[in-house]
Amino acid sequence: MRTSKFTIFIRTTVIVFIIYMMLAWAWNSMTNTNFWKPSEMAISAVLTVLLFGGFAWAITNFGMGLIYGRSQQYDAYRRGGGDPYFDSLPWPLNPDSRQVRETGMAEPRTSFVPPASWKFQCPVCGARQPTRICVCWNCDYGSNGDSSEYFQKFGNSKPPEISEQDWAEIRSRHDA
Description:
mainly alpha
């Protein structure tokens, strides 16, 4: 599950507040004044994050919409709760793993560690898989031929690694 946008906003505001407080302390020490107060720094930190973070969010989402707006994979990413701005923020602000940022699901904790070459994820439990549609080694998803979870998560986008014939068979089972 992704870190909430509100949590990321609070983390960012706290970090900016700490930086502002260090600058205020340095300024007040050098000038022997009490010009910058903590309450002023807190308000400044919130306004800075809202203004610059909001501007960066708008530009990032607008640009990604222009570049990838018609992509089925981008649509699936957005439907799954993905946000190109928040998912691109570095660790102190967004502690999510790369897999959570891309898919919205954490990999389950098991004794089996899938190979790094397995890039896809089970739509039910989040375990890494060798292909997008296969029988999951962790939760056995797909063993009965039901692929409804895949279609809920990814829509009607055909995985590139699946042939047209196999895709037609999967679609016919799903539509039945």
